[in-house]
Amino acid sequence: MDATELLKLYADGKRDFQGTNLSGARLNGVNLSGVNLSGADLSGASLYKAILDEADLTSANLHDATMPNGTIHV
């Protein structure tokens, strides 16, 4: 799945993206509050200033992901 498809599905109300491959995705500045990304591959993803309030990132692969100035509230 690429960032565009994720954002479209999220806008349509989907929040469960458990185990999704988002390696290298560019999600800068997006609001993904309440998203379930548990077990997702976010390696190399760019999450600069992304809003991940109450997001589930349990066991997500965040290797080499960039998240400066992003917000995560659990």
SSE layout:
Elements: H1 3-11
Description of the structure:
The chain has about 70 residues and is largely without helices or strands. The protein is about 10% helix and about 0% strand. The chain contains 1 helix and no strands. The protein has one helix at about 5-10. The longest helix has 9 residues, at about 5-10. The radius of gyration is 11 Å and the shape is globular.
Q: Major beta sheet, specifics?
A: none
Beta strands, count: 0
The second-level CATH architecture is: 3 Solenoid
Total helix count?
1
Calculate the mean pLDDT score and round it.
Answer: 91
The run of helices and strands is H
**Content-based structural category:** little secondary structure
**How much β-strand is present in the residues?**
under 5%
Domain count:
1
First-to-last CA distance: 25 Å
Q: CATH homologous superfamily - what is it?
A: E3 ubiquitin-protein ligase SopA
